[in-house]
Amino acid sequence: MEEVISVNNLSKRYGSTKAVNNLSFSVKKGEIFGIIGPNGAGKTTTIEILEGLRKKDEGEVLVLGMNPEKERKKLNNRIGVQFQATSIQKKMKVKEAIQLFGSIYDQNNTNNQIIKLLGLEEKMNKYFDDLSGGWKQRVTLALATLHKPDILFLDEPSMGLDPHARREMWSIIRSLRDEGTTIVVTTHYMEEAEKLCDRVAMIYNGELRALDEPNRLVEDISSQYVSFRSPDFPVEILKAMPDIMKVEHDELSDTIKVYAENLQSCSYLLFKEAEEGHYHISDFKFERGTLDDLFVHYLEGGQTA
Amino acid sequence: MTALWRLTILETKMFFREKVQVFWTFLFPVLMIWLFGSMFGNQDYGNMTFASYFVPSWIGVNIVTTAFFTLGTVLTGYRETGVLRRYQSTPIAPWKILFAHTVQGTVIFSLSAVVLIVFGSLMLDLHAPRYLGSTLIALVLAVAAFFPFALFITSLAKNTQTAAAISSLFLNLMLFLSGATFPLDAMPNVLQYVAKILPLYYVIDLMRASWNTGPIWEHQTSALVLLGISVVSIFLASKFFRWSGKNE
Questions:
Q1: Is the CB of B82 less than 8 angstroms away from the CB of A85?
Q2: Which chain B residue is nearest to residue A75, measuring alpha carbons?
Q3: What is the pLDDT of residues A100-138, one digit of tens each?
Q4: SMART domains, per this entry (chain A) (predicted)?
Q5: Segment 29-68 of chain A within 8 Å of chain B by CB
Q6: How far is Cα B151 from Cα B108, in angstroms, rounded to an integer?
């Protein structure tokens, strides 16, 4: 697959804080690439360096074969950007904004399909300021895609949207991908990364912690465990069992989570102990972790994948 | 239509959608002249009438209000809310944005001047400028000096509130100390010197003169001062133009 973005050993400092530290990754043509991490992890800085809005300190960045700092004008014709905070003039009508942004680009084939896709026809005569958060996001998404960009950058596109609007936003983003646009999206919603992205780069403190397809990431051993409920199973016995990595005990709900290298043999021992000691086990499950779990794991553990 | 004209027309339209701003720009000066006229209308202004003394100077004041509030403060707001940053990620050149706002400001200022002149003629017996060419040149110089000046000064502010505060400070200083609203002769000597530091003083000098007594070349100093402010401000405004309040 063709690479449309390549980042090598990128670093960026603000004063003495390292916002981005030695980051390397590449984005393939036609994928939805997620950059995930907690607030302040360096997501926005990274994406803004790719867009040419910020200057890097070190490393190499190529977007569509161009250097974003030096060839921003040329690059701007071929990328679309949606910022985290929605930002057009308050008293501008939706229709006016679409006409204005349409006229800015060289390509004179304004993408009217996107307006239909986003259902903006009914809002064309509304002032931007009078729209709800979800509609504002739709308008700024439309403005970012009018000129059919090769790459679309979305910074937290579903921030502040209700679950329904979020799902709609995902399906719109997917259909843009299906039309051939490469999409780079930042998010701190793990669910979004899991359901929307084809590949995910997890960053924390400006460093890359993991990079893979979401379902591969969660297959990571550290995010698999068995869980069960028991009012009387002694946690000490569990902790003494071989190969146990971690035991979490929630006393309020009597839920116990056991992380182990080999979940099958761990389960066997667990039930054996329960039978011999007459402890009650209910709600036993093999759990496949979510990105959320993996995320917390990296945050707590701090080790590099 | 090109992006440049579309943006210019849109910005002008959007100005008229802000009703409060429309009031301050168009009606406030008329109210003030009417108020001052009813208080000081019968005083002696040498060979000028109240109207031909004050209407030209209020036209000058309107250049300042337009420069600082319609242009400067609004652009600072755009910088603060990310409107400019949004443009930064499109192929549009920065000069086009500044040009659109300059044209918009000129249109709005011209309308406000027409409002004042019509009011003056109907209510206060204002006569037409005696040296019309000079008046027009004076206006062009004043716009060329004040628009970039205000854009530069307000671009130093981090947010709209600060920009508005700076603008109000400049406006009030000039309103009361440059001779626009109170005759300078009536002020203490010190304040008469202070007046000469304020750029508006030179606008008013040119406006009053060309309206009543003599053409612009009899007031070369004032014209040169404005030209100087214009050149320096355009340089500073373009050198320090920023897309966003954040550092890169």
A1: yes
A2: B91
A3: 998 998 766 666 788 888 889 999 999 999 998 888 989
A4: AAA (SM00382)
A5: 51-55
A6: 16
